[in-house]
Amino acid sequence: xxxxxxKILQGPFRALCVLAVLWAAMPTAAQQxxxxxxxxxxxxxDRLFADSAFxxxxxxxxxxxxxxxxxxxxxxxxxxxxxxxxxxxxRATLSAEEFRPMAEAFDEKVQSHRDGQRAKLDALAxxxxxxxxxxxxxxxxxxxxxxxxxxxxxxxERANVVLSSDASDITQAAITRIxxxxxxxxxxxxxxxx
Length: 194
Description:
single chain, 194 residues, mainly alpha, 2 domains
């Protein structure tokens, strides 16, 4: 029986056993890269977007558009204030029947301005949400790569974690790699629109 076992451990089976032992002894990608090995990683998606080159560019663009919208709003408010002043002065010289249609037209103009500005603000907010969605779509391959490098099986939102070590937070590592992979994304957006 012992002779039979010795024969089995020789030849191809022995080589397979040696391979299995070597495989088990091989360092994981996380160990090779000097990264802590963990099954669960955390990430702050808000910080990931806000601190990335892509997110910074989007914030600058939205801020610039918001400033233009504020300037436009100030001009329109100044114009409407002057019209209101003129209308108030006319009120003293007009009958109620003559003044009412003018006042109603002015009220409609003010409401139209409010609705228009609100629509522009909503469009700006949607633009920010679309940029965020695009960012996370482009960042997904990098996050998958990090997951593999750390030997982890899951990445969860850091805000949903009650307690964890800082070693499990890969937000900064993800920002660094995403910036290297896509930069601020401006070139990618130009290429996609052509």
